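Researcher: If convenient, please comment on what follows.
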Amino acid sequence: MYAGFITSKYTANWLGAHQKFNRNAYRQILRFVTVAKFPPLDRIQHFEGYNGPDGIKVKTPHRHEEPSHFYDPDEGVGPLIDHLENHYRSLVNALKAESNTRAAFEAAWLAHTVVDGLTPAHHYPYEEELHLMYSAGKQEFRKRRNKVIIQGDSRRQALRNNWQMWGSKGLLSTHIHFEAGVAAAVLTGSFREPLSPLKLRQARRMGAIDFFRDQASAIHQLRMYDRFYESSWTIGLARMVRKQLAPTIIQTLAVIWILAAEEAGIGKS
């Protein structure tokens, strides 16, 4: 999902989809969290964009990259789950220790993971397909130059590989086009709905990780990415983003932040 950073010195927080979800989720936690002990929104936003997970790929390509934020909602597994658990547990510990900067960092990176994991483009086995394409060209796909141009044993194979990546309905072009459409659809939305008490009760019973799995499964059942692949963006699909996808992402993020705060002892009774 687009995180708003344009250069290493400038992140457009008002433009980034991740920042938009963070702002609306933060508004929903105010009734449930002792805000004086939870990191302020501006500090959380500081660790998005260029200072967030997406920035790692630009700062140090091929080194120290974050695990991929792709998730299989049918099986409920993927490297994203380990990432989610680590940031959730680290946020709880930072809140208990009253480590404000660390808590802001963990809240932001946890939020980024939650949002990516709920986005339908991240439910496609993108990285598996990517490995297959690059191995056909005998390349290491995390090298910067190889992320743009895929080689092949012949010119024809190289052209075919790059068309599968960048051409019409290509692997990466489809992913980018979908996420850009989601970002555009949510840019002007207000999303002022209050947090669902039912969802919060459900999450308290299930725990943060299983609640995330449940919400990701519900989103996956909408088949939004399949519909996009078949028909590209339509009015109906954009409406689904604003009415179903975005509110679910915002409420899930808010609930997971609240659960971390409550576990750290700073929830409001």
User: Anything to note?
Assistant: The radius of gyration is 19 Å.
